[in-house]
From TrEMBL:
The active site is at 37 (proton donor). GO terms for cellular component: cytosol. This is Pantothenate synthetase. Its EC number is 6.3.2.1. The gene is panC. It catalyses: (R)-pantoate + beta-alanine + ATP = (R)-pantothenate + AMP + diphosphate + H(+).
Length: 282
Protein backbone atom coordinates (compact mmCIF):
# COMPACT_ATOMS: atom_id res chain seq x y z
CA UNK A 1 0.00 0.00 0.00
CA UNK A 2 1.27 3.44 -0.89
CA UNK A 3 1.02 6.05 1.88
CA UNK A 4 0.90 9.78 1.13
CA UNK A 5 0.87 12.68 3.56
CA UNK A 6 1.19 15.43 0.93
CA UNK A 7 -1.70 16.25 -1.38
CA UNK A 8 0.61 17.27 -4.25
CA UNK A 9 2.30 13.85 -4.17
CA UNK A 10 -0.99 12.00 -3.97
CA UNK A 11 -2.41 14.04 -6.87
CA UNK A 12 0.67 13.36 -8.97
CA UNK A 13 0.47 9.61 -8.32
CA UNK A 14 -3.28 9.46 -9.00
CA UNK A 15 -2.95 11.45 -12.21
CA UNK A 16 -0.58 8.82 -13.63
CA UNK A 17 -3.12 6.15 -12.66
CA UNK A 18 -5.92 8.09 -14.37
CA UNK A 19 -3.75 8.45 -17.47
CA UNK A 20 -3.64 4.65 -17.46
CA UNK A 21 -7.48 4.65 -17.33
CA UNK A 22 -7.58 3.28 -13.78
CA UNK A 23 -10.82 3.91 -11.93
CA UNK A 24 -10.79 5.05 -8.30
CA UNK A 25 -13.06 4.10 -5.43
CA UNK A 26 -12.61 6.42 -2.44
CA UNK A 27 -13.42 5.91 1.23
CA UNK A 28 -12.95 9.01 3.39
CA UNK A 29 -12.55 8.12 7.09
CA UNK A 30 -11.41 9.58 10.38
CA UNK A 31 -9.44 6.44 11.19
CA UNK A 32 -9.98 4.05 14.12
CA UNK A 33 -11.05 1.68 11.38
CA UNK A 34 -13.44 -1.21 11.95
CA UNK A 35 -15.18 -3.89 9.88
CA UNK A 36 -17.71 -1.34 8.60
CA UNK A 37 -14.90 0.65 6.96
CA UNK A 38 -13.29 -2.54 5.67
CA UNK A 39 -16.54 -3.59 3.99
CA UNK A 40 -16.56 -0.25 2.12
CA UNK A 41 -12.98 -0.83 1.02
CA UNK A 42 -13.74 -4.38 -0.12
CA UNK A 43 -16.65 -3.05 -2.17
CA UNK A 44 -14.42 -0.37 -3.72
CA UNK A 45 -11.78 -3.02 -4.53
CA UNK A 46 -14.41 -5.09 -6.36
CA UNK A 47 -15.70 -2.18 -8.41
CA UNK A 48 -12.52 -0.20 -9.15
CA UNK A 49 -8.89 -0.60 -10.10
CA UNK A 50 -7.75 1.35 -7.04
CA UNK A 51 -9.15 1.76 -3.54
CA UNK A 52 -8.04 5.01 -1.93
CA UNK A 53 -8.68 5.64 1.78
CA UNK A 54 -8.13 8.87 3.66
CA UNK A 55 -7.58 8.97 7.41
CA UNK A 56 -8.04 12.48 8.69
CA UNK A 57 -9.64 13.56 11.96
CA UNK A 58 -11.27 16.69 10.66
CA UNK A 59 -11.23 19.42 13.34
CA UNK A 60 -13.88 21.63 11.72
CA UNK A 61 -16.66 19.08 12.09
CA UNK A 62 -16.32 18.84 15.87
CA UNK A 63 -18.49 21.22 17.87
CA UNK A 64 -16.85 20.03 21.06
CA UNK A 65 -13.09 20.40 21.67
CA UNK A 66 -13.00 17.55 24.17
CA UNK A 67 -14.67 15.18 21.69
CA UNK A 68 -12.00 16.11 19.11
CA UNK A 69 -9.13 15.63 21.59
CA UNK A 70 -10.49 12.24 22.66
CA UNK A 71 -11.29 10.95 19.18
CA UNK A 72 -9.50 7.56 18.95
CA UNK A 73 -6.24 7.54 16.99
CA UNK A 74 -5.02 4.06 16.07
CA UNK A 75 -2.68 4.67 13.12
CA UNK A 76 -0.62 1.44 13.30
CA UNK A 77 -3.71 -0.71 13.62
CA UNK A 78 -5.39 1.20 10.77
CA UNK A 79 -2.43 0.58 8.47
CA UNK A 80 -2.45 -3.14 9.36
CA UNK A 81 -6.20 -3.37 8.67
CA UNK A 82 -5.86 -1.51 5.37
CA UNK A 83 -3.08 -3.86 4.31
CA UNK A 84 -5.20 -6.87 5.28
CA UNK A 85 -7.81 -5.87 2.68
CA UNK A 86 -5.22 -4.87 0.05
CA UNK A 87 -6.07 -1.19 0.11
CA UNK A 88 -4.00 0.48 -2.61
CA UNK A 89 -3.51 4.00 -1.29
CA UNK A 90 -3.71 5.69 2.11
CA UNK A 91 -3.86 9.48 2.32
CA UNK A 92 -2.91 10.58 5.82
CA UNK A 93 -2.48 14.37 5.78
CA UNK A 94 -1.84 16.71 8.71
CA UNK A 95 -4.28 19.47 9.65
CA UNK A 96 -1.83 22.05 8.17
CA UNK A 97 -1.65 20.14 4.90
CA UNK A 98 -5.43 20.36 4.51
CA UNK A 99 -6.24 23.74 6.05
CA UNK A 100 -2.89 25.65 6.05
CA UNK A 101 -3.40 28.51 8.53
CA UNK A 102 -7.15 28.68 8.15
CA UNK A 103 -8.84 25.91 10.14
CA UNK A 104 -12.41 26.99 9.37
CA UNK A 105 -15.39 25.68 7.44
CA UNK A 106 -17.04 26.93 4.33
CA UNK A 107 -20.75 27.77 4.86
CA UNK A 108 -23.09 25.49 2.93
CA UNK A 109 -26.75 25.47 2.04
CA UNK A 110 -27.92 21.88 1.92
CA UNK A 111 -31.56 22.83 1.30
CA UNK A 112 -32.46 22.39 4.96
CA UNK A 113 -31.07 18.86 5.41
CA UNK A 114 -28.43 20.36 7.69
CA UNK A 115 -30.97 21.72 10.21
CA UNK A 116 -32.53 18.36 11.04
CA UNK A 117 -31.46 15.91 13.75
CA UNK A 118 -27.64 16.05 14.12
CA UNK A 119 -27.74 19.62 12.86
CA UNK A 120 -29.84 20.66 15.86
CA UNK A 121 -27.37 19.23 18.34
CA UNK A 122 -23.97 19.70 16.67
CA UNK A 123 -23.57 23.27 15.57
CA UNK A 124 -21.52 23.73 12.39
CA UNK A 125 -20.98 19.98 12.07
CA UNK A 126 -22.23 19.65 8.51
CA UNK A 127 -20.35 22.73 7.32
CA UNK A 128 -17.23 20.95 8.58
CA UNK A 129 -18.19 17.70 6.87
CA UNK A 130 -19.03 19.52 3.62
CA UNK A 131 -15.71 21.38 3.72
CA UNK A 132 -13.53 18.33 4.20
CA UNK A 133 -15.43 16.04 1.84
CA UNK A 134 -15.39 18.64 -0.94
CA UNK A 135 -11.66 19.25 -0.35
CA UNK A 136 -10.88 15.53 -0.42
CA UNK A 137 -12.95 15.02 -3.58
CA UNK A 138 -10.98 17.83 -5.24
CA UNK A 139 -7.70 16.18 -4.27
CA UNK A 140 -8.56 12.55 -5.06
CA UNK A 141 -11.05 13.08 -7.91
CA UNK A 142 -12.56 9.62 -7.39
CA UNK A 143 -15.06 7.94 -9.69
CA UNK A 144 -17.13 6.77 -6.73
CA UNK A 145 -17.04 7.50 -3.00
CA UNK A 146 -18.46 5.09 -0.41
CA UNK A 147 -20.13 5.99 2.89
CA UNK A 148 -21.87 3.93 5.57
CA UNK A 149 -25.56 4.44 6.29
CA UNK A 150 -24.99 4.72 10.04
CA UNK A 151 -24.43 8.39 9.31
CA UNK A 152 -27.48 8.52 7.09
CA UNK A 153 -27.94 12.29 7.39
CA UNK A 154 -24.29 12.79 6.42
CA UNK A 155 -24.82 10.53 3.40
CA UNK A 156 -27.83 12.56 2.21
CA UNK A 157 -25.93 15.80 2.76
CA UNK A 158 -22.95 14.55 0.76
CA UNK A 159 -25.30 13.57 -2.08
CA UNK A 160 -26.71 17.11 -1.91
CA UNK A 161 -23.18 18.59 -1.92
CA UNK A 162 -22.34 16.63 -5.07
CA UNK A 163 -25.62 17.66 -6.74
CA UNK A 164 -25.29 21.37 -5.85
CA UNK A 165 -21.63 21.70 -6.80
CA UNK A 166 -21.95 19.33 -9.77
CA UNK A 167 -18.98 17.35 -8.47
CA UNK A 168 -18.05 14.55 -10.88
CA UNK A 169 -18.28 11.70 -8.37
CA UNK A 170 -20.87 8.99 -7.67
CA UNK A 171 -21.93 8.54 -4.06
CA UNK A 172 -22.78 5.07 -2.77
CA UNK A 173 -24.37 4.41 0.61
CA UNK A 174 -23.67 0.99 2.11
CA UNK A 175 -25.53 -0.93 4.84
CA UNK A 176 -24.78 -0.39 8.52
CA UNK A 177 -22.31 -2.92 9.90
CA UNK A 178 -23.24 -4.25 13.32
CA UNK A 179 -21.54 -6.13 16.13
CA UNK A 180 -23.05 -9.56 16.89
CA UNK A 181 -25.19 -8.03 19.62
CA UNK A 182 -26.57 -5.42 17.19
CA UNK A 183 -24.57 -2.35 18.20
CA UNK A 184 -23.80 -0.30 15.08
CA UNK A 185 -20.06 -0.28 14.43
CA UNK A 186 -18.50 3.08 15.17
CA UNK A 187 -14.98 4.33 15.83
CA UNK A 188 -16.33 5.75 19.08
CA UNK A 189 -17.32 2.30 20.43
CA UNK A 190 -13.76 1.64 21.62
CA UNK A 191 -14.18 4.47 24.12
CA UNK A 192 -17.20 2.90 25.83
CA UNK A 193 -16.69 1.62 29.37
CA UNK A 194 -17.39 -2.11 29.88
CA UNK A 195 -20.72 -1.24 31.50
CA UNK A 196 -21.80 1.11 28.71
CA UNK A 197 -20.63 -1.31 26.03
CA UNK A 198 -22.85 -3.98 27.56
CA UNK A 199 -25.78 -1.57 27.72
CA UNK A 200 -25.41 -0.14 24.20
CA UNK A 201 -27.15 -2.94 22.19
CA UNK A 202 -30.37 -1.71 23.83
CA UNK A 203 -30.34 1.07 21.21
CA UNK A 204 -30.74 -1.23 18.22
CA UNK A 205 -33.09 -3.56 20.13
CA UNK A 206 -35.36 -0.57 20.75
CA UNK A 207 -35.13 0.53 17.11
CA UNK A 208 -36.18 -2.96 15.99
CA UNK A 209 -39.14 -2.96 18.40
CA UNK A 210 -40.11 0.51 17.17
CA UNK A 211 -40.04 -0.77 13.59
CA UNK A 212 -42.47 -3.56 14.56
CA UNK A 213 -44.83 -1.00 16.10
CA UNK A 214 -44.59 1.37 13.11
CA UNK A 215 -48.01 1.58 11.49
CA UNK A 216 -49.90 0.39 14.57
CA UNK A 217 -48.69 3.49 16.44
CA UNK A 218 -48.47 6.90 14.80
CA UNK A 219 -45.06 8.70 14.79
CA UNK A 220 -45.87 10.75 17.86
CA UNK A 221 -47.04 7.73 19.88
CA UNK A 222 -43.99 5.77 18.76
CA UNK A 223 -41.64 8.57 19.77
CA UNK A 224 -43.26 8.74 23.22
CA UNK A 225 -42.96 4.96 23.53
CA UNK A 226 -39.21 5.07 22.73
CA UNK A 227 -38.67 7.98 25.12
CA UNK A 228 -40.35 5.96 27.87
CA UNK A 229 -38.08 2.95 27.26
CA UNK A 230 -34.98 5.11 27.67
CA UNK A 231 -36.31 6.90 30.77
CA UNK A 232 -36.42 3.49 32.43
CA UNK A 233 -32.84 2.69 31.40
CA UNK A 234 -30.25 3.34 34.13
CA UNK A 235 -27.21 3.83 31.86
CA UNK A 236 -28.36 5.28 28.55
CA UNK A 237 -29.64 8.78 28.02
CA UNK A 238 -31.73 9.50 24.95
CA UNK A 239 -30.87 12.74 23.15
CA UNK A 240 -33.41 12.35 20.39
CA UNK A 241 -35.57 9.81 18.62
CA UNK A 242 -37.43 10.88 15.55
CA UNK A 243 -39.26 9.45 12.58
CA UNK A 244 -38.33 11.27 9.42
CA UNK A 245 -38.92 11.21 5.70
CA UNK A 246 -35.83 9.55 4.18
CA UNK A 247 -35.47 12.20 1.50
CA UNK A 248 -36.14 15.47 3.33
CA UNK A 249 -35.06 14.17 6.76
CA UNK A 250 -37.93 16.17 8.22
CA UNK A 251 -39.69 14.75 11.26
CA UNK A 252 -43.15 13.57 10.28
CA UNK A 253 -46.45 13.31 12.10
CA UNK A 254 -48.42 11.69 9.27
CA UNK A 255 -47.42 8.62 7.27
CA UNK A 256 -48.11 8.68 3.53
CA UNK A 257 -48.16 5.29 1.76
CA UNK A 258 -45.79 6.18 -1.10
CA UNK A 259 -42.99 7.72 1.04
CA UNK A 260 -40.00 6.09 2.72
CA UNK A 261 -39.45 6.60 6.42
CA UNK A 262 -36.61 5.99 8.82
CA UNK A 263 -36.25 6.20 12.59
CA UNK A 264 -33.18 8.08 13.82
CA UNK A 265 -31.71 8.02 17.31
CA UNK A 266 -28.90 9.63 19.31
CA UNK A 267 -28.04 8.32 22.76
CA UNK A 268 -25.42 9.12 25.38
CA UNK A 269 -23.70 6.12 26.93
CA UNK A 270 -21.77 7.98 29.64
CA UNK A 271 -20.02 10.74 27.70
CA UNK A 272 -19.95 8.78 24.43
CA UNK A 273 -22.60 9.82 21.94
CA UNK A 274 -23.92 7.02 19.75
CA UNK A 275 -26.19 7.34 16.73
CA UNK A 276 -28.12 4.75 14.78
CA UNK A 277 -31.08 4.48 12.42
CA UNK A 278 -33.42 1.95 10.86
CA UNK A 279 -35.55 1.83 7.71
CA UNK A 280 -39.21 1.59 8.73
CA UNK A 281 -41.06 0.71 5.53
CA UNK A 282 -40.57 -0.71 2.00
O1 LIG B 1 -17.95 9.77 8.56
C1 LIG B 1 -16.78 10.19 8.78
O2 LIG B 1 -15.90 9.45 9.22
C2 LIG B 1 -16.47 11.64 8.54
O3 LIG B 1 -17.56 12.45 8.83
C3 LIG B 1 -15.94 11.92 7.13
C4 LIG B 1 -16.98 11.62 6.07
C5 LIG B 1 -14.71 11.08 6.87
C6 LIG B 1 -15.54 13.39 6.99
O4 LIG B 1 -14.56 13.74 7.90
Amino acid sequence: MKIFTRKSELKEFLSTQKDDKKSIGFIPTMGALHQGHLSLIKKAKKKHDLAVVSVFVNPTQFDNKEDLAKYPKTYDNDVALLESVNCDVLFFPSVEEIYAENVTSEKFDFDGLEYQMEGKFREGHFDGVGTIVKTLFEIVEPDTAYFGKKDFQQLQIIKKLVEKYKLPVKIKGRPIFREEDGLAMSSRNVRLTKEHREAAPFIYKTLKKAKKKFGAKNPEELTKWVEKQFKKHPLLELEYFTIANEKTLETVTIIEPDKKYRAFIAVFAGDIRLIDNIRLNK
